[in-house]
Amino acid sequence: SQKLSGVVEDCQCDYKTVDTINEEVLFPALQSLVKKPFFRYFKVKLWCDCPFWPDDGMCHLRDCSVCECPENEFPETFKRPSGQLSPADPKCQEGKPQATVDRTLDNQAFHGWTEADNPWTYDNETDNAEMTYVNLVLNPERYTGYIGASAHRIWDTIYKMNCFKDAHKDVCTERRILYKLISGLHSSISVHIASDYLLDESTNHWGPNYTLLHERVVQYPDRVKNLYFVYLFVLRAVNKASAFLAQAEYSTGNTIEDATTQLLIKDLVTSQRLLNLCPVPFDEAQLRSVDGGELKSHIQEHFRKISALMDCVGCEKCRLWGKLQTLGLGTALKILFSEETSPHSLNLQRNEVIALINLLSRLSESLKFVNDSLLQNKVKGLGSRDM
Fold this sequence. Notes:
Layout: H1 15-33, H2 37-40, E1 41-44, H3 106-109, E2 132-135, H4 149-160, H5 173-195, E3 197-200, E4 205-207, H6 210-218, H7 221-240, H8 242-247, H9 255-269, H10 272-277, H11 292-308, H12 316-337, H13 350-375
Antiparallel strand pairs: 1-2, 3-4
Helix pairs in contact: 1-9, 1-13, 5-6, 5-7, 5-13, 7-12, 7-13, 11-12, 12-13
Active site: 315, 318
Subcellular location: Endoplasmic reticulum membrane
Main location: endoplasmic reticulum
């Protein structure tokens, strides 16, 4: 099967090396990390008004719904003292137990973490009254039945924004990079839909849809290239924040799991194999041109609009993963645009770290699925079509 070769454009590593570090280092490490309590529970504002057009309503397929955290799984300090469920809480459509949490206890449960709004995203992550906690393990990113005009309008709007005009022509590096980030993220989401697809709704049979993988991603080399690019971009952000991540406290009240999480994070950010093979996945100096201050504000403004579009996603589960991954990408931009490198000067909040690591895990899974599908001849090799 035909695969990509050479150095990933605008990056410092070649495709073969990326495949190696993903297979040997990142994929197994991230698979373990995202299942730990600290990275499993994500704070998100799910019920939102679309700021761009009237809400189309939620899709009705069962697998579009999001289940809030089961009470017996959520950290004790997050539960309501009374233990009573509010009758206003929506009933879970997937048969999981309801959960209700005290959203004001964020800092008490995770000692040492600050609450700060991410300037790159539309939501105010400090507004606990509007947030709910979701168990990501119980709500996997996969096909939900969210298709048609409503779904296409989200991506069409993103690509038609002024920031991406003439993206293939001689535009500034910052704009080209942002375009590739969004394209790569779009590719990753498409891969996850294809990798876990509802093949037969009548029998609830799920499995990989290789035809969809080829039609949506693999037949377009630029989409695969941009998937590699966003992977290395986010990896560089994790690399740059390594000192902060290594010394942060991952406390959820589960002593054994928290200690394991701390060790897994430390092993990930200090991996000698990773540092030897790809010491600088992406050079963020490309983001700082002469008028970098103005361009940063310009890119930030457009990324906030992209983040705001997640409130227009009609499928609740798609909205959950859209918000998590845009926050993760916004956190990567925040880190790489920052001049701060010491663990004490870099200001990341708990939800940003959760989103960043989960995003890297999503991208890692996407790369592995694409490569495994090509190696096993499950999908046709990369074609010659442009994006």
